[in-house]
Every structure is written in C-alpha cells, then in structure tokens.
Amino acid sequence: MLKLPIPDLILNNIYELKPEALRDMGVTLLLMDLDNTLDKYHALAPGIALRNWIDALKKAAVEPFIYSNSHGRRAGRFAGALGVAYINRAGKPDSKRLAALLRAKGAAPENTAIIGDQIYTDILCGKRAGIKAIAVRPIDLSNPFRRLRYGAELPFRLAYKRRANIKEKKA
Questions:
Q1: In which domain, by residue range, is 94 found?
Q2: What's residue 1's pLDDT?
Q3: Is 4 within a domain?
C-alpha cells in the first residue's frame, strides 16, 4: 500500500514539541533527525536550549535517539554530548533499518515517533514504519537547494493543514 508522506503533526521547531505531550500520546521513543532539525548543518556542538529539551524528554520518560542520514563523526559527537544513542547513515526514507532498531529496542511502533525537517526522508520513513511522523520547519533555508527541496514538499505540508482544518471543523 502506498504511504503518503503527510505528517501527523507539523511544528515550527522541536521546542514546540512538549515532552509531556509526547508521553500523553504514549510515545516512549523519539527518533530525531539531526541536520536542520536539532541544529544547523555543520553545528559542532549542541547548545543549552537543545540540551535542556533533551533532558526534559528524559525526565518525561521519552527516550531521545538521534536517527540521521549524516555521514562521518558529527552525529556521534552530538549524541555523546547529549547523552543519547544514535544511528548515522540511517538510509531514510528506507524503513528497514528503523524496523530493525525498533525490534532491537523492543519498541512498539505505536509508542514511537520520528521528528525531522524533510518530508521525503524523515516523514516518509516514519510513515513506512507505521510510527508517528512529526515535521518541523527547517532551521536554515539559506542554501538555495534546500529552499527548492522545501518547496517541493509544500503539497504534503498543505495536505496536513487541510486535514487538520477538517478535524477542527468536525470537533
């Protein structure tokens, strides 16, 4: 069956995602994209706000886990600085590695969410795996190719808004 990459939730940034809200949704594992989601591309270390948000997730009994397509050592350094586990070269949007991770952790899809800035990688991967998929606005769109990619994702972001408006009207 075709899985459309329409997010379950869209936020401006990760800080709008309250750890208690995740816990109330039954989420115990949060897979997080790194680049342009948690921090800017090529940021060398996490800032205080990100460290505090990660600590709040842990206090709410939500395990933060970096799930990144990045190469090299950056994801490992970031994860180490935050005290979280990670996978780099995740191969998103393919969900095979994600499914293997869930099995290894004993995590149920209904208790797992992924958050990221890219519809065609992060959100599609989450949808294919049957987990909650949360999109955020990219942190930095100064690169013209990233702006172009973001524009190509617009139909799915608008589909989310349309669906959200329909739900509001029914409520």
A1: 9-170
A2: 55
A3: no
- How far is the C-alpha of 79 from the C-alpha of 17, rounded, in Å? 19
Q: CB-based contacts of 130: which residues, under 8 Å, 6+ apart?
A: 109
Residue 3: inside a domain: no
Q: Any idea which of 41-50, 71-80, 87-96, 142-151 has the lowest mean pLDDT?
A: 142-151
Look at residue 171 in the predicted model and tell me its pLDDT.
60
What is the value of pTM for the model shown?
Answer: 0.91
Percent of the chain with pLDDT over 90: 75
- Cα 42 from Cα 139, distance rounded (Å): 12
Does residue 2 lie within any of the structural domains? no
Indicate whether 104 belongs to any domain: yes
* Distant-in-sequence, close-in-space partners of 60: CB < 8 Å, separation ≥ 6: 19, 20, 22, 23
- The rounded distance, in Å, linking the Cα atoms of 104 and 83 is 19
CA–CA distance, 117 with 12 (Å, rounded to integer): 10
Domain count, the chain: 1
